[in-house]
Amino acid sequence: MTSDLSHFDEPTERDPKIGRPSLREADVIDVDLLATTWRLFVDQGYSRTTIEAVARHARMSKRTIYQRYSSKDQLVEAAIRDALERWRSHVRASLTNTTSRSEDWLGEFVRRCLEILVSPEGSALMGFLLTEDETFRTIRETVSASVRQSVDVFSVLLAQRTPGLSEKMAEDLSLAVLDLLIGFATRLNALQPHEAMDEIRTRGSRFTAVIRTLVDRQCAQTPA
């Protein structure tokens, strides 16, 4: 099963024009440019995502790219930031679209997070963060900020939907849940994609039950 977030429309061929592009054309160029950069990053890794390769696949000149981004690092960072925003919106929608009476909102959150982490996009990004050095601190900070925002959304909902749970404890539990998700996803990423998705389907509910137990136990230990 492929996450909806992994789909990008193919860049469309643009007729050559003289002069500066309109605002609408500039927006189209940026969308195509970031989508192409992200696809190359996922498929080929950071080192092979060159400005030349991006220009060739996006069917635009290197000059057009450099008018928008001064370096490869800046371009890749923008593409990662764009993808992370879509992921975050996807997870946020999965949480806020479930009603407060729903017992399965936690399971839905776990399932969607795992699907993102084991998708080709999530796997590529996790591998990049684990293997690249401090040269890419800005990109790491971009990812960390996105994770922080997702944790904040989850901790607020956890506090709202769990009677007796303080905001501080909800935040601590959210970070613990994130660590569990990343650990499970790291193991799943060693499998073939279809095997990883099968594992999510068969073990996802049990994994969610472990997280629920953690939350319930902490609530029981919290002073009234």
TrEMBL record:
| One Pfam family cited in the UniProt record for this chain | TetR_N
DNA-binding region (UniProt annotation): 50-69
Q: Which species expresses this protein natively?
A: Brevundimonas albigilva
Its name, as the record gives it, is TetR/AcrR family transcriptional regulator
Q: What keywords sit in the KW lines? A: DNA-binding
Q: Which residues form the HTH tetR-type domain?
A: 27-87
Q: Does the keyword DNA-binding apply?
A: yes
Annotated region described as Disordered, given as residue ranges: 1-21
